[in-house]
Amino acid sequence: MARNLQIMVVDDEEAICVALSAWLTKEGYSVETAGSGAEALAKMERQPSDLYLVDYKMPGMDGLQLMAEIKARQPDAPIIMITAHGSIQSAVAAMKRGAIDYLCKPFDPEELSLLMERVAAAHTLQQAETAPDGQWDTAAAPPAWGGIVGQSEALRIVLEEIEEVAPTPAPVLITGETGTGKDLLAMAIHMRSEQAAGPFVAINCGAQSETLLESELFGHEKGAFTGAIKARRGRLEMADGGTLFLDEIGEISSKMQVALLRVLEEKKFCRLGGNQPIETRFRLISATHRDLRQLLREEQFREDFFYRINVLTIHIPPLRERLADVPVLADFFLRKYAAETGKPVEGLTPRAMEILMGYAWPGNVRELRNVIERVVVIARGRMIGAEELSFLQPPGDTCIPETATLKEMERRHLQNALENSDWNISRAAKLLDIDRVTLSRKMKRLNLKRP
Amino acid sequence: MHPSTADPATDALLDLIPFGEMEPAALTVVAANLQAVAGLPTRIRAVRPTPDDALIATRHQFDAVKIITALDREPHGAPFRMGILQRDLCIPILTYVYGESQLGGHAAVISLHRLHHIDRRITAERGAKIALHEAGHLLGLEHCREPGCLMRFSKQLDQLDLLPMRFCSACEYETARLLKRASVNRRP
User: Where is the signal peptide (chain B) (predicted)?
Assistant: First the structure.
């Protein structure tokens, strides 16, 4: 589970460096360690990190001095100060001088995990904010749009709608096909809202069971159920003062809709197993790829909840309806993956671009991203040509026997994708725009094995 | 599937080593699941005294890193070694751990202390899940984001309880592949 975050741990106690580095590596982060401020600065010169975990008390250059040096070289670098247990004064001093947070030794594993998730999410957002040059070709280009790249009229209208709805406190429903980037729109709204300084708490309602979702949203009191050995805050509580983003809202049960409706109306709730009302005020943004009105007609979605979450609606059109975005998106992803892989790929030939423009993009921006990642990986020259995109073209002279069953077709398609990815499951899954678990399951079912 | 208890001639890939007093049923459940779910031929070794040299007296906890280091240095035994104890475990930087292991290494340790439940069967099942998670790390797996996978990091016991006793299919595939490699490159 490689995560895109490079962390430097600076502590004069080797055991701390080793233990923290091992823990963070298991979490999937890239970690470097330094035993002193000087060593950290030397390593930073060679390769700056995305996050610095700095011990407050070190011989020679102490944590505060090192923080000032890091800030001088990398002003936006997030720094977390590690302090001794109980030394609140040093934690306060660190926060005053620009540390984003502090951790008291020894750390609570849950606290550390949550903090790292928060930093990683902020880092992803910041990376996305580093908008590529050229997608807006006028001086009137809007401020960074959180990785939303495009030049089509359709997208311009969406962005104008965001500018309009962002400052209001009203709930927003974002609709659009899978892969269109609804989560990026939600973040863009948050960043332009009055709650921008508050937390952006996201949860995918479709990815968990009802019980887990309930516990995740509402939190629980100690002893609420088997294993609840201590109280835990839920996402509703964490979102206080910020934005709550409920992705895949069309998947939640009727019971959960009622529970959420009550919170939205009363602005307070109780944790599971608790009877103490907790107040919470957040801006709600929901998203779905499903037709909620159809679900209403089928009585799978409650009318009162629908109108509560659907005060303002933003629809993001599928990529095939805004093909003008394809060249700038392709260019954006091409430069991103060229930089990541270190390949000197500079662009696409006109014929290659024609192929991209002629494709229907059923998987939307996510599919385009996966295609570009793949062609950058297999690219041999400076330009991506039509031959590298041949897999997107119609099969042409490929002979498909009329007797081929759906299962045979699926098997053949998966085999092609796997062969084109050197049987790397993650890469093939990306290519097919499914997750690797699904691919592994299909491989097992179709008895597809690496030769 | 019954784990072997002390046959030195066995082809065990993992030695499960109890430190201090341990309920035999819990030990058997952990070993059986290591074999059945991860496919790791496991043998239960004789009980050893509590590793007092790893005790951090001020915290009333045992230092997992010290135990792992000692297990890793032992010249004899199966390629993978996993200590198991009833006492509370920590690493110096964290207030507690359920288990700790070398990523892609040879030694791990788990504790049943914080997994305790009034129903002993649940305690043993929790122990088996932690053991399988640490075994995954020993084989080289990092944490997984799949909600129903044993390699997902459980921040709390309720999350651990919700996990089924299995890896997601991608981690299962990786486990089988890495296990095959481990079987070929057995530690001398």
Answer: none
Q: Mean pLDDT for each consecutive 10-residue tract of chain B (188 residues)?
A: 44 94 92 94 95 93 94 93 96 91 94 93 95 95 84 86 87 86 67
Full-model pTM: 0.52
pLDDT tens digits for range A372-381: 988 888 887 8
- With vertex at residue A129, the alpha carbon angle to CA A128 and CA A131, rounded to the nearest 5 degrees, is 90
pLDDT digits (tens, 9 = 90+) for A95-146: 777 888 888 888 888 888 878 877 777 776 666 544 333 333 322 333 345 5
Is B187 near chain A, with CB under 8 Å?
A: no
Q: Is B68 on the interface with A (CB under 8 A)?
A: no
Task: Give me the residue spans of the domains in chain A.
Answer: 6-128, 153-317, 320-393, 395-451
**Which is the CATH superfamily of the domain at A395-451?**
Homeodomain-like (1.10.10.60)
Interface of B with A in 4-43 (CB under 8 A): none
- Which residues in chain A are contacts of B144 at CB distance < 8 A? 1
Task: Choose, out of B65, B69, B158, B180, the residue to mutate when testing the contact with A (most A CBs < 10 Å).
Answer: B158
| CATH level 3 topology of A153-317 | Rossmann fold (3.40.50)
The verdict on a CB contact (< 8 Å) between A26 and B137 is yes
- Domains of chain B by start residue, with CATH: 14-178 (3.40.390.10)
CA distance A196 to A146: 13
Cα angle A421-A426-A429, degrees, rounded to a multiple of 5: 80
Q: Compute the radius of gyration of chain A from its Cα atoms.
A: 25
Please judge whether B160 and A227 are an interchain contact, meaning their C-beta atoms are less than 8 angstroms apart: yes
Output the CA torsion A279→A285→A288→A292 (10° steps).
70
On whether ipTM exceeds 0.85, the answer is: no
With beta carbons less than 8 A apart as the criterion, state whether B62 and B88 touch. yes
A6-128: what fold? Rossmann fold (3.40.50)
3-state secondary structure A236-264: HHHCCCCEEEEECHHHCCHHHHHHHHHHH
* Pairwise CB contact (< 8 Å): A215 & B158: yes
Q: Does domain A320-393 have CATH number 1.10.8.60?
A: yes
Residue B99: name the closest of B131, B126, B67 by CA: B131
Contact A205, A251 (CB under 8 A): yes
Q: What residues of B are labeled active site? A: 134
Cβ contact, residue pair A106, B117, below 8 Å: no
- Which residues of chain B are within 8 Å of residue A227 when distances are taken between CB atoms? 117, 156-158, 160-161
Domains A6-128 and A153-317 alike in fold: yes
CA A195 to chain centre: 19
